[in-house]
Amino acid sequence: MPGKRARRHFSQLSEFKRGLIIGMKTAGWSTRRVAGQVDRSECAVRNCWEQWTREGTHARKTGSGATRKTTRREDRKIVRQALVDPTVTQSTIRADVGVAIVPQTISRHLAEANLKSKHPFHALPLTPEHRQLRLKWCQGRSMWNVTDWQKVVFSDESRFVLGTDGKCVRVW
């Protein structure tokens, strides 16, 4: 599967797999054979082996990746704002934190706290009892003819917005 192969290139090698790679390469295995055995790319195996021969260690280097734009305290403030007011927007959070961050940073911090943006419930979902009552109502009217149904007024609760603002509020 191409998707599975693409994902494995970006996941980090665990300490165990790094040790396996070093052991197999020390035993004389080829890079291709080791890569197939540990289900990683040949490039990842080669980089791990080169680090071992160059530095004598297979541990990951610390400090890799982008530098943090927010402190731990600011991260907690972002999450706290979303918990206190679930309808707060990302632009409001960004202004209150006072640090130049992109909306993806806010979303990532909230997702780490298991807070995701979603539309709130407008109506409660039907319970099994409600479903039974609706079924009974329908079965009681299953033998109605056209003249009986002409006396009934149906209303549709859907609304359509042609503009950009549907007044939809998202909550965290």
Automatic annotation (TrEMBL):
Gene3D superfamilies: Homeodomain-like, Ribonuclease H-like superfamily/Ribonuclease H. Its main location: nucleus. Residues 75-139 form the Transposase Tc1-like domain. GO terms for molecular function: DNA binding. Pfam families: HTH_Tnp_Tc3_2. It comes from the Eukaryota. GO terms for cellular component: nucleus. GO terms for biological process: DNA integration; DNA transposition. It is found in: Nucleus. This is Transposable element Tcb1 transposase.
